[in-house]
């Protein structure tokens, strides 16, 4: 931490522990230039609301959006039918992105990497291949939202686990 008293300095690195409690949300430090605050519930709700509005507009304006890309009548009909099955996953994906960015910003890159690899490779592949083989090819439209939901559960678990004793900056 640049020039601020308090943390112990050893070998050029600083270590500070922030315990749960205080004026900010539980297990989160107050925001500072060196350390952003936790994804506050208000931020999470803003992200959720923003994603929901964008998804709703996408579904409501589906024909107009597809027309912007010069879709023919057959493609337009297919896209309008398929879009609501797929775009809801972006609501959940926004939450995952926020939690991952929070991990990076609080120097817990290992957790962010775990979250991103699980979402991009492991859970994605398992859900798409597993559900498609069990439930047929039509389920593939829903798999994006399903695997993002599973990754969100993992993200919340990692967040709770990593902050059980406060946040340690190294």
Write a structural description:
The chain is mainly alpha-helical. Helix content is 64%, strand content 7%. It has six helices and three strands. A three-stranded antiparallel beta sheet has the order 1-2-3, with no helix packed on it. A hairpin with a 2-residue loop joins strand 1 (8-10) and strand 2 (13-18). The chain is globular, with a radius of gyration of 20 Å. The model is unreliable at 1-27 (pLDDT under 50).
Throw out a few tags for this protein.
single chain, mainly alpha, 170 residues, 6 helices
Total domain units:
1
How many strands, which pairing sense, and closed or not: the largest β-sheet?
A: 3 strands, antiparallel
Largest beta sheet: strand ordering: 1-2-3
**Helical element count?**
6
Order of helices and strands, N to C? EEHHHHHHE
Instruction: Determine the strand fraction and express it as a percent band.
Output: 5-15%
- Please give the alpha-carbon distance between the first and last residues: 9 Å
* Basic shape: globular
**What structural class should be given to the helix and strand makeup?**
mainly alpha
Radius of gyration: 20 Å
Helical content stands at: 55-70%
Question: What is the number of beta strands?
Answer: 3
Uncertain stretches: 1-27
Give the mean pLDDT: 78
Describe this structure in a few short sentences.
This protein is mainly alpha-helical and 170 residues long.
């Amino acid at each position: 931490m640049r020039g601020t008293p308090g943390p112990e300095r050893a070998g050029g690195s600083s270590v500070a522990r922030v315990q749960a409690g205080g004026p900010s949300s539980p297990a989160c430090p107050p925001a500072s230039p060196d350390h952003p605050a936790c994804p506050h519930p208000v931020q999470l709700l803003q992200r959720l609301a923003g994603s929901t509005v964008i998804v709703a507009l996408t579904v409501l304006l589906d024909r107009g959006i597809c027309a912007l890309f010069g879709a023919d009548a057959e493609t337009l009909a297919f896209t309008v039918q398929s879009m609501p099955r797929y775009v809801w996953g972006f609501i959940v994906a926004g939450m995952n992105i926020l939690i991952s960015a929070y991990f990076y910003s609080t120097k817990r890159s290992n957790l962010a990497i775990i979250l991103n690899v699980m979402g991009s490779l492991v859970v994605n592949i398992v859900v798409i291949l597993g559900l498609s083989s069990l439930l047929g090819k039509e389920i593939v439209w829903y798999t994006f939202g399903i695997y993002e939901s599973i990754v969100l559960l993992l993200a919340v678990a990692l967040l709770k686990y990593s902050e059980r004793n406060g946040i340690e900056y190294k």
